[in-house]
Specification:
By secondary structure, the chain is α+β, with helices and mostly antiparallel strands. The protein has helices at residues 16-22, 34-39, 84-101, 103-112, 118-128; strands spanning 2-7, 10-14, 42-47, 58-62, 67-69, 72-75, 77-81.
Amino acid sequence: MELIKITNGTQKPYSMGQLRRDNKTVSFPKIVDPATLESYGVFSAVEADIPTYNRISQSITRAETAVKVAGQWTYNWIVTNKSTKELAAINRAERDKRLAQCDWVVTKALEAGTSVASDWVTYRTTLRDITTHANWPNLVYPDMDGSGGDWPTSP
């Protein structure tokens, strides 16, 4: 349980230790009831459930101040979209990772003195050219089963 103290409309994080230090002449019980806390301007606060959000294209942060929701002081979550620059960097890193994961195909072909299979050439070319995709940098990632999305599928 988190505590907050509200003084003249300003809210700040608080603790039982601070309550005891701020009121040295008061003998508080080990567990202080909510009514007593409230008489000192101190309230318990909880976190709201984390909302659903896209971990690739969005960021989530906890609000700095709690709001009263159904009688309970609650810290809500703020979901923000990542910038175009951030998305581009994330997607470039993903592209580089996917290219590195199939470098073995090129190495194997070179060692054997053969050419790289056309499906692998197409896949790697599509990865290298992903920055020219119509949805760049707002690419859709495949579903959990690997289907759908803007990314090419590995042969």
